[in-house]
Input
Amino acid sequence: MHLTKQVEYDRSRPVKGVMKTVLSGAIAIVLLAGLATAAPEKSQVVPDFPGTLVNARYVYVTSYDGDQFNPAVLPEDRQAIASVQNAIEKWGKFIVVYKPQDADIVLVVESRPSEDILAVYDAHGWPHNQFLWRVMGREGLQKNETPLVSQMRKAFEKAQKQVHG
Output
């Protein structure tokens, strides 16, 4: 009688080791991606404000889809218009007007979950002309904080010093 001992080979063992390694790597990537998005953004270079607009006095704020009273405008854009108007009034440099024909500058906003936009147009050619200045950023046009308007203010004041000395 020949006795042989059969040894069962556990094939799942090496797979478990590989799975554990792959899973650990995937978790590390997800954590690093989360940290990268949670980290504060590097300071963006603010573009130069056009010197031709430093003497402007009246500003009209709208969105790409229409003004704040247009029912087709998304609520996020309507809120962005109001936030920008409030920030402009607090700044005191410009007078907010409610008709584009009364403005020297048109500020056009767009607020999306991925990114907000603030663009400056010369009112005398708007809406057919190209924007003269624009900044974009996440959460840049929120209700109580408008960092994109702050960037515009810094760029405007820098341009004003260059033009007026």
Remarks:
- The chain is about 40% helix and 15% strand.
